[in-house]
Amino acid sequence: MLLLPATSVLAGEAAIEPTDNGADVLQDTTVDADSRSSETSAAAEKLVEAVSAHEHLVPLADAVTTVEEDPAAPLQLLGKEIMPGTAHRLSWSATELFEGVPVSTPVLVVNGASPGPTLCLTAAVHGDELNGIEIVRRVMHEIAPSKLSGALIGVPIVNVQGFRRGSRYLPDRRDLNRYFPGNPNGSAAARIAYSLFNDVIAHCDALVDLHTGSFERSNLPQIRADLRNPDVVTLTQGFGSMVVLHSKPTVGTLRHAATLAEIPAVTVEAGGPSQLELAEVKHGVKGIETLLSTLGMVRKRRFWGDPEPVYYKSSWVRADNGGILLADVSLGSTVRKGDLLGTITDPMSNQRSELFSPYAGRIIGLARNQVVMPGFAAFHVGMQADDVTAQVGAANAAQKPSTGGYVDGMSE
Ligand SMILES: [Zn+2]
Asked: Is the peptide bond before 181 cis (omega within 30 degrees of 0)?
């Protein structure tokens, strides 16, 4: 099933999707919210209340790990033993190799001198998403093993084949992030997913999977999290002041598989594909370093003006006409209802149409200037919301399992 006819033509790539995708990953609400509430902590509290199946907020340490009373222990990973207080660069090769040539990718490990949780960072599951690679590098090389409690495992380039080709996909055009937790006897993608999941991810107490927008779209640094899961909610609160979007994970994503395996996981989106964007990289590093501090893994505190996460609901504004899209707003812009977002000009007829914001909110994602087809999702407007609570509550009531989803390549 080819789900991306328009964008794939423009991006020059097509995905082979596993099965049954249809549901929207994001909450594509059409509510006309004019919410500019700044009571973020209140919103977060209400949000926690909305997940009422669980009476209290899980303490962060408990959400991420069971209590460790023993002294720091050696970490067994990929056939190696990493002693406490040391850092190593290991190598992971998927069991299924292309062209019979082994393909390996580095796995960076810092085993702290003191006991604590094991946090894992993965990047470039989509090979063209570069910001996460640099985020992992910066975080890993900043950590002194002697000052770390617990362990940090970083896989900067999961999809090394895609990375080499500058492609989101594996060489067989499969999206690796639709095959977790994998299958040792399945397709190449399923085997690679299985190997990563069992050899590395299974050792994690919590996971942060780093992504960017896809197909020439860029995202304001943001956390995508299933806020129906209290452990995941708690994890989102560790990052400091970052935009948090409720997003039911698509079946087959690393985030979905890890959370099912009781490893709380979030996706961090920062910037767009195929570029290294320093501001986005720095924002991501700051968020993860804050998480390390909130998890009690490091003592250093990062300063945020407002330490609370900011919960958003969101909606995409789509192009109604095809043509050349030029944006009038930038990432992070605040918009009012009715503000001009951008124009689309038909290069043949010179007919121009304008896209206006149906909501008051903030631009949390947008398409880079490009040629678009009608229906192309161009501007992602986030509405800071108390309403997130209602949204999560509704999702809870429905209890509908996510059967997968692929929104014009906007999902992780
Ligand atoms: Zn991605």
From this structure: yes
